[in-house]
Amino acid sequence: MKNEKNKKTIGSSPSGSLPTGEGGGRGLSAVLLLLSIPLFLLLNLAVGSVAIPLDAVFSILMGGDCDNEVWTNIVLHTRLPQALTAIACGSGLAVAGLMLQTVFHNPLAGPSVLGISSAASLGVAFLVLMSGSIGWHIVSSFGFFGNTALTLSAVIGALSAMALIVFLSQRVHGNVTLLIVGVMIGYIASAIIGVLKYFSSEEDVRAYVVWGLGSFARVTGGQVWVFFGLVLAVLPFGMLLAKSLNMLLLGEQYATNLGLNISRARTQIIIVAGMLTAIVTAYCGPIMFLGLAVPHICRGIFRTADHRILLPGTLLCGASLALVCNLIARLPGMEGALPVNSVTSLIGAPIALWILLKRKK
User: Fold this and answer.
1) What residues have CB less than 8 Å from 208, skipping those under 6 apart?
2) So what's the pLDDT on residue 23?
3) Are 347 and 293 in contact (CB under 8 A)?
4) Which residue of 46, 130, 276, 333 is most buried, as measured by CB atoms within 10 A?
């Protein structure tokens, strides 16, 4: 009976089509989410410590003449890269979080649950915290070469952890066991980072802490297009897994009866979610709570468990919410910017508490 109930939740009619009322409401929600992205994008370009009129922003984006060169530099070289980074980061982490919550049947699972973010942090820690002993002071200064080195080290750390997780996923049958393995990887990485901090100089520890706060402003110049392109290249593979995710939502026994290869589907989901997490962490640092909170917000908006709807909806919702967080982090009247993780935690932590209280009730 439980499987039949879940089956009706995923497909509201035998043909898989949605009732007119529900389909119309979800379509309207999707349109509003889609329209919110360019709206918040424009606000990100116009609002900040330096207020720029919207007509000037449009002129700069269209390549028109703008009398104020300072405005042109701020929009094209600072705020636009930040906004594009926020869109890619929010959409990537949100989709990864949705996929991991489904595969582990855990509403509190997020992109960091497999220890991939911690492994990326470990890769950066080896580079930054040991730079003082080998003379790589350029890393601590976070110049162009420093950012490139940080990105490569984070990618190496994240992909190493993901390779281990994928290897174990083929030999471990229980999702709970695999989840525990991911948590243990995170603890081991955190322990090694703690040891490196103890033996490192104050300057290197400060540089690592700055990286760990997370930022959309770290991706500059041509790197933003590389980052944006990498996320866009991986996201379609997640969309193609909607059918497998719907089957897994019904339970492994039901999915097996429908002909799904559980081990292969789980490996594919982990690879896609892991790649998205690794890319975002490498370029932006560990961004908290977006991957946890956005899937639940999206489920509340669309009121469905069908991943054919949730995956694109989560992508749009994640991009929009990340733009809002970036906008809050650069509130008008502030000379600097708040750490992005402070803003995302203020949004994501109450949602996590609400989930716990709802489940207890």
Assistant:
1) 124, 125, 128, 129, 197, 200
2) 61
3) yes
4) 276
Out of 68-77, 80-89, 104-113, 131-140, least confident range: 131-140
pLDDT value of residue 99: 92
Residue with tokens 């600097």: 336
- The neighbour count for residue 41, using CB atoms within 10 Å, is 23
Q: Which of 273, 286, 322 is nearest to 117 (CA)?
A: 286
Amino acid identity at 123: G
Average pLDDT over residues 85-96: 94
- On the question of pLDDT at 301 being above 80, the answer is yes
Banded model confidence at residue 335, pLDDT cuts 50, 70, 90: low
Give the Cα separation of 89 and 225 in Å (integer): 13
User: How far is Cα 143 from Cα 148, in angstroms, rounded to an integer?
Assistant: 9
Q: Give dist(CA 277, CA 224) in Å, integer.
A: 16
**Cα first-last separation, the chain:** 23
The DSSP code sequence of 100-139 is HHHHTT-TT--GGGGSHHHHHHHHHHHHHHTHHHHT-HHH
- The residues, any chain, with a CB within 8 Å of residue 76's CB and separated by 6 or more, are 60
Q: How far apart are alpha carbons 79 and 88 in whole angstroms?
A: 14
Length of the chain: 361
Task: Tell me how many degrees the CA angle 201-207-208 measures, rounded to the nearest 5.
Answer: 90
User: Which of 85, 121, 105, 102 shows the shortest CA–CA distance to 273?
Assistant: 102
Residues contacting 219, CB < 8 A, separation 6+? 81, 85, 227, 283, 284
Crossing angle for the helix pair 290-302 and 340-360, nearest 10 degrees? 60
C-alpha span between 248 and 92 (Å, rounded):
21
Position 127, amino acid: L
Q: Report whether pLDDT(293) > 50.
A: yes
